[in-house]
Amino acid sequence: MSPLAATAATTTTVGEPAVNIAIFGAFVVVTLVIVFRASRNSRTAADYYAAGRAFTGRQNGTAIAGDYLSAASFLGIAGLVAINGYDGFLYSIGFLVAWLVALLLVAELLRNTGKYTMADVLSFRLRQRPVRVAAATNTLAVSFFYLLAQMAGAGGLVALLLGVSSATGVGLVIAVVGVLMIVYVLVGGMRGTTWVQIIKALLLIAGTVVMTVWVLALQGFDLSALLGDAVARAGDPALLEPMQLYGATDLSKLDFVSLSLALVLGTAGLPHVLMRFYTVPTSKEARRSVVWAIAFIGLFYLCTLVLGFGAMALVGPEAILAAPGGSNSAAPLLAFELGGTLLLGFISAVAFATILAVVAGLTITAAASFAHDIYANVIKRPGEVDSAGEVRVARITVVVIGVLSIVGGIAAQGQNVAFLVALAFCVAASANLPTILYSLFWPRFNTTGALFSMYGGLVLAVGLIVLSPVVSGAETSMFPGADVAVYPLNNPGIVSIPAAFVLGVVGTYLGRPSREHDSKQAEMEVRALTGAGAEKAVAH
Amino acid sequence: MSTRPPTDTSPFEEMRATPEFAALRRRFRRFVFPLTAAFLVWYFTYVLLAAYATDFFAVAVVGDVNVGLLFGLGQFVSTALITWAYVRWADRHLDPAAEHMRHEVETALADRGDRGGRTVVPGSRA
User: Fold this and answer.
1) CB–CB contact A383 B58 (8 Å)
2) Is residue B120 situated within a structural domain?
3) How far apart are CA A491 and CA A263, in angstroms?
4) Which of A67-71, A253-257, A472-476, B81-85 shows the lowest per-residue confidence on average (mean pLDDT)?
C-alpha cells in the first residue's frame, strides 16, 4: 500500500482543505467579476434567456461541454472505471454517441424554429396552451431531477474535499453553493451562466488532460501496461471485460440495455442542452456548437478511461472505497497521488465549479420555462407581458428554484439519489424526444399526439421508477421495508421510450388537426430547414 | 416563384410547394436518416455485444488491450467520422441552398409587411 492509501483509510480527508477552498475561491472571484461585467446587457428576454444570441459556435460548444460534463460524469465515471473496470466506459460511450442525435436531427432545426425554450419548438405548429404546459412540465421535471442529483452530490464532495462531515457543515456548504449559483444566474442571466460554463469546461478539460498524460507517461505511454498494472493492483483481470457491474443476472443485463437506450436518446431531449442552441446567431453556428461539444466531450471521456484505470493502478480499489465519498473519490485521490496537495486542490476546485456551472444552467432553463411558457403565455395572454416583465418573473423564479434546490440538496443528504440523473435522461428521451422529432419530421403530427406522448412518457418514466426496486422491495431501495416493485428493472427506458413514440402516433390518429394545421406546418418546415424568419442575434 | 403570390397563402406555403424546397428536404433527409440509422445500429450492436457476448469482448488483441476496448474506442472514432462527414456535407450542400431560400422567403415576407416569422411564437417582443 502507498502512504496515501494508508492515510486515506484512517483519516477523513486527504490534502489540505484550505488549499482546495483557496483555489475554488479564486475561481469564484474571477467568474463573479466576469458575470457582473456580462450583466450590463441582461434586460430584455433575448439577452437574459439567450445571451443576445451572440456567442460563437466555439464558445457555445465549450459551454455545452461545461453544462453537460457534470460532477456525475467527472467523478462518477472515473470512479466507476476505477472500481468496476470496463463497465464505466460503457456509460461514457452512451453519453458521447448521444450527441449525434443532436447534431443530425435536432440542433440546427431547433435553433431555426424556437426562441427561448423547448416549448417554443414543440408548440410552434400545435395548440399553444396545452402543449406549452406539457412541455414546461417536462422541462421542470427533468431540470428538477437533475438539479437535486447535483446538489446531493455536492454533499459527498464536501466531506471528501473540505474535511467537513457534520450535517450542519455539509448543509452550510450546500447553501453557499446554492447562493453563489443564484447570484450568477440572477445577475448574469444566460450570458453570465455561459461564461461560468466556458471557464469551468476549460479548467476541467485542462485538468483531466494533464492527469491523463501524467498517468500515461508513468507507463511509458503504453496503454496495455496501464491496464495490466490496474488489474494486477485490483487482483481481478476480469475487470477488463464488460458486465462486471451489470452482468449479475439476465435482468441486470436488460437493465443495462435499458439504460443505454435512455442515455443515447436522452441528451437531445434535455431542455438545458436544447436551450443552449438559442445562444448562437445562426443554425450554422448551432452546428459548429455541437462539433466543438463533441470534440471536448469525446476527449474528456477518453481521459476518464485512463484516469479510472490510473486510479485503479496507482491508488487501488480498496483505498478508493475506504475514502469518504467512496468511488467518487477516485479522481481526487489520483490527483493527490500524482501531484500532491496542489493538484488535488485544483481538481477539487474544478469539481465544485462543475456543480456550480451545471446547476446554474439547469436553473436558468427552469426559470425561463416557467416565466416564458407558463407565466407569459398561459397565465397571461401572449403579448400581454412585455419582455422586461417576463425577465422580472424569471429572476424571481431563479430565487425560488435556488432555495428549493438548497433545501432539496440538504434533505437528500444520505439518500441514494444517484438514480436521478439516469431518470432525467429517461424522462428526456421518453417525454421530450418523440415530440421534438415528430414535430420536425412528421407533417401529420398534431396536438393530441403531442399530449399523449409527452404526458404518457413522463407518467410512464416516473411511474415505473416508483414501481421499481429503486424505490422499494430491495435492500438498496429508498424504502426497503415496503414492496410495490412490480417493475423489475431500475431503468424504465426500455418500456417508456418506445411506448412514448407509439403514443405519439396513436394520439395523432385519434386527434384532429387544427384549422391552421397546414399553414403552420409549412411555416415550421420551411423555417426549420432554411432559417427563414428565425430569431436574429441582438445588436448592442 | 417569380410570380406575385395570391394573398391567402403565406410565403412559407409557397416555398414548401416549390420543387427546389422539396429537393433540399429530400437531400437533407436522404443524408441524415440513413446516417442516424447507421450509428444507432452500430451503437446498439456494441451495447448488445457488451451485454451478451462478453467472452468475445474479453479476447486479448495486443497485450492487455482486448476486443471490447477496441470496439469501445471504435465508437469514438465513428462518432468523430460521422460528425466530420455531416459538417462537410452540410457546409457544401445544405447551407448554400438554404441561404438562397431563406433570402427569398424573407424578401416575400418583407414585401407583405412581415406577416410571418416574428408573430408566430407569441410572447415578449424582445
Assistant:
1) no
2) no
3) 11
4) A472-476
Report how many domains make up chain B. Answer: 1
How many of the other CB atoms lie within 10 Å of CB of A538? 17
- CB of B18 within 8 Å of any CB in chain A? no
Host domain of residue B101: 11-114
Distance CA A230, CA A236 (A): 9
Decide if B36 is inside a domain: yes
Q: Which residue's entry shows cell 395548440?
A: A127
- Contacts made by residues B74-79, CB under 8 angstroms, sequence distance 24+: B74/B46, B75/A93, B75/A96, B75/A97, B75/B42, B75/B43, B75/B46, B76/A93, B76/A96, B76/A298, B76/A301, B76/A302, B78/B39, B78/B42, B79/A96, B79/A97, B79/A99, B79/A100, B79/A294, B79/A298, B79/B39
Residue of B111, B121, B125 to mutate when probing chain A, most A C-beta within 10 A: B121
Give the one of B58, B102, B122 whose C-beta lies nearest to A532's C-beta.
B102
Asked if residue B6 belongs to a domain, the reply is no
Q: Is the ipTM of this complex over 0.90?
A: yes
Interface test with B, best of A48, A77, A80, A97 (most B CBs within 10 A): A97
pTM of the model: 0.92
Question: Residue A320 pLDDT > 80, yes or no?
Answer: yes
Which candidate from A44, A103, A260 shows the least CB-CB separation from B83?
A: A103
Superfamily of the domain at A3-530? Sodium/glucose cotransporter (1.20.1730.10)
